[in-house]
Amino acid sequence: MDLNALIKIIEKFGRVEIENIVITADELIINIPSAPPVKIPQTPELKEKIKEEFQIKEVKELDWEIPKESYKGYIREVSFGRPKSEGGRGIVVKIGGQRALYRFEEPQPNPPVVTFDIFDMPMPSLPKPIRQYFEDVMEDPVEWAKKCVKFGADMITIHHISTDPKIKDKSPKEAAKLMEDLLQAVKVPFVIGGSGNPDKDPLVLEECAKVAEGDRCLLASANLELDYKRIVDAAMKYDHNVLAWTIMDPNMAKDLNRKLIDAGLDPNRIVMDPTTCALGYGIEFSINAMTRLRLAGLKGDELVNMPMSSGTTNANGAREAWMTNKEWGDKKYRLALWEITTGLTMLLSGVDLFMMLNPIAVKTIKKVGEKLTNKFKMPKKVDWITA
């Protein structure tokens, strides 16, 4: 039975049951026409009543107070980099420090921070609208980092992808050598990532932490699937912070934080990453997890009152963001909008640090972040127009 025949059966009977079906396809899209809108008959009396009810009316000025919630807790402030006076490279970036959830409750003390993703090897799998910005520097991570700083990066995230045994199996020493070169090339602080291999990453992060001693980087990341104690030891020994990564479960995030602290990590060195789902691909679960964590911290739970990070680059994996479709518009802008919307949603959910790829999206998030740190006034009285 072909698809057209199936649609005709559904249109005729409104229901069809299929048993023992096997579908093999790269992509399957079924568009079933929706039912026509239901029309409710209206009597002349009903029409007149509706017309009267929905007339626009002017209402006198009303006294209105901005709704503010007071919290007994706070969000810890975490800093990256060190000033030259303390032997660092001169740039210090801070996140966190809030005592309220929303901007109108209290101006944010630190603007959201954007860290640009770079890789230690070329990444031809990146979507073309992003790849076109970096094709000339993909062979050289140092030049890649420099270009990201020109695009406005507050920090740089280096992913040591080639250390994965299944890719190039580069040694932790080789990763550390690249880390040294990057630290000499740019002044912004670093997020140091591995390849995602649970056996190799603790070794890579340990070696990179050593060469970056005292520069206060963010080691990314510690989770329950690898030797997080080794990462904690490296962070405390060489003066770094740790990214605590979990799936979208506030209880799991709290449990991981407790384990990291029990292993010796100062809680003021923790940044949480509860996982970011892209727009249209479960973003509501990320909103739920992040908002719950932020509120719990503000209410006084000191096991989750840490600033949060978002892997906003996950937005670039959404099919609707990168697929070629003329009806959806130019994917150069669509891809940027997908990352922007995902980032802004996370921003409103309490995220402080954004790992991003698209220069257009980075510029937008930074502009919004600047506005969030400025004091502003809202009118005490409002002229209401009601329907």
Lateral arrangement of strands in the main beta sheet: 10-9-8-7-6-5-12-11
Give the tally of β-strands: 14
Compressed to H and E, one letter per element, the order equals HHEEEEEHHEHEHEHEHEHEHHEHEE
Quick check: average pLDDT? 88
Helix/strand-derived category reads alpha/beta
Largest sheet: 8 strands, parallel
What share of the residues does DSSP label as strand, in percent? 5-15%
Helicity level, as a percent range?
25-40%
Report the radius of gyration as a whole number of Å. 25 Å
The tally of helices reads 12
Q: Which consecutive residue ranges, at least 5 long each, have pLDDT under 50?
A: 381-387
Please state the overall shape, judged from the principal axes of the Cα atoms.
Answer: globular
Ends distance: 52 Å
